[in-house]
Amino acid sequence: MSLLHPFFLFSLLFFAFSFSSAQYNLAPCPLDFEPLLNVTTFDVNASTQCQYVIQGLRLVLATYLQSTGSFLPPINSSESCWDSYQSVVNNFTSNFNIRSDCGFETTWISEGCMNITTRSQFDAVVSQATRADIVASCNQSLENSSPCATCTTSLSNLQAVYLTGSSVGNLTDCTAYPSIYAAGFANYLGPTDPGTAKCLFNLNFASGGSGNKRRGVVIVVVVVVCSVVFLAVIGGVWVFYRKRRESRSVKREIVNIEMGLESISGSTTLIKFTIDEIRQATRNFTRDNIIGRGGYGNVYKGVLKDGSEVAFKRFKNCSAAGDTNFAHEVEVIASVRHVNLVALRGYCTATTPLEGHQRIIVCDLMKNGSLHDHLFGSTEKLSWPLRQKIALGTARGLAYLHSGAQPGIIHRDIKASNILLDEKFEPKVADFGLAKFTPEGMTHLSTRVAGTMGYVAPDGKKALMVIGENQPSLVTDWAWSLVRKGRAIDVVDNSMPELGSPEVMEKYVLVAVLCSHPQLYARPAMDQVVKILETDLPVPSIPERPISIVAEMDDIERSVSSSDMGCISSSAGYQSFTFEGQQHSD
């Protein structure tokens, strides 16, 4: 009897557990993934598929909220919902598993923000005035950029004030709830409206067939009429156009560029300075006023008539054709406002007989120079509190460019010389000459190689030399070799003043190594980086790095372990890095 009793109890518990586990995943999925079959943007490279999966799920959750008043499906339907979603994704791409390839846990689809699962719970957390503001901003067609920007700005404010909980696998976290709520209730057109889907979820929907047919008929008629007219006059126009083609083409280009530059001042509050005003402020561009040089030209300090100190970025080798790049940088800087982005005061476009085309950008003067000046110059080393402030501020600025700006902006040339420091050592991300808009709001962008070689992370990083071993290596591989051995703190220069706590400094090292990981999937989004640095969130596990193209990992580890001090410098002598380590016993 004494043996039967525990056996019976074990059997009862086992069958009860098996029954509950089966029930956990047997419920049918209440979500409708059919609308995603009309999405036209799933057929992309593998690096962005997980982003589309996340945005597609949020759109489906918005339709579910609209019909049921619930943000999330029941947790016992998680498995069936993933299966339903997978079947839809299979229509767009093969050999792609949502959960395994993107690292999503099964239960994440039913886990949300701050235990908010229904609309009534959401209304209890968010004030009525804020919800009314969301309706006023988002209850319109969001197809154009202006109403979309108004709506997303209101949603960002809501999330920052009321939804401050931690994320759950970056699926249905607090950053997603405002868009889901706005699409489900605030916008009268609903989540599947093409304008709403593109603005709030960065998804493109195929337009209706009847409209396409009507537009097709119109296009055919226009093409036929234009062809007839063209054939009627081509004989006489051809000779005239051949003689005047070059001169008219140049004039047309100049007119278009000037119109583009004039449109900048018409759409912003920027000041258009005259060349004489800038000459007076810089003492006729005297060399004593030069505070920076680069491939683009020189940067001068100066004083305006009102007594304010500013910086003038003067482009060299300008031409009429180069005005397009100048207009692009002005457009990018003028479109964003953030405490960690350089503020643009104005610009100057002029043509003089002696100097030709003049293109100048006017910004606030950063009295502490650039981060490069402090890291590689002769000034006193920055303390840990200042380095921590600069790292966090730079991350915030980049997170705003990627996620806060509409459309998103990828800088593509982040380096120490492009991080300016004001009088309080608040970092300002500068130099947007290579920036690229991302209309679909993706956090990753595949383009041709751009920027300064040696800084394009991670594949284009400068090959550095470990002087002690005379072996080429990457500084990121050197840091990773220490992290792998549990010596992350040795990456920190222990000669800097006011060292922080080892736990905090190690956290920053781990985040830096994770952000420079060669594999795209392993690198976190910038808004996630900010959350990790600002809160007690743990740093995600760092996947193993592939073998470096420049050096074997064993060579790097041997270089680190064989000497107490490793001095790393660029092969071109551009700059040098010195790392002072401590002896550790195994």
Automatic annotation (TrEMBL):
Gene3D superfamilies: Phosphorylase Kinase, domain 1, Transferase(Phosphotransferase) domain 1
PROSITE patterns: PROTEIN_KINASE_ATP (PS00107), PROTEIN_KINASE_DOM (PS50011), PROTEIN_KINASE_ST (PS00108)
Signal peptide: 1-22
Positions annotated to bind ATP: 313
InterPro entries: Kinase-like_dom_sf, Prot_kinase_dom, Protein_kinase_ATP_BS, Ser/Thr_kinase_AS, SPARK
Keywords of the record: ATP-binding, Kinase, Membrane, Nucleotide-binding, Receptor, Serine/threonine-protein kinase, Signal, Transferase, Transmembrane, Transmembrane helix
Coiled coil ranges: none
Domain Protein kinase intervals: 285-586
Transmembrane segments: 217-241
SMART domains documented for this protein: S_TKc
Record-linked Pfam families: Pkinase, SPARK
Molecular function via GO: ATP binding; protein serine/threonine kinase activity
Name assigned to this protein: Putative LRR receptor-like serine/threonine-protein kinase RKF3
Organism: Vitis vinifera (Grape)
Upper classification of the organism: Eukaryota, Viridiplantae, Streptophyta, Embryophyta, Tracheophyta
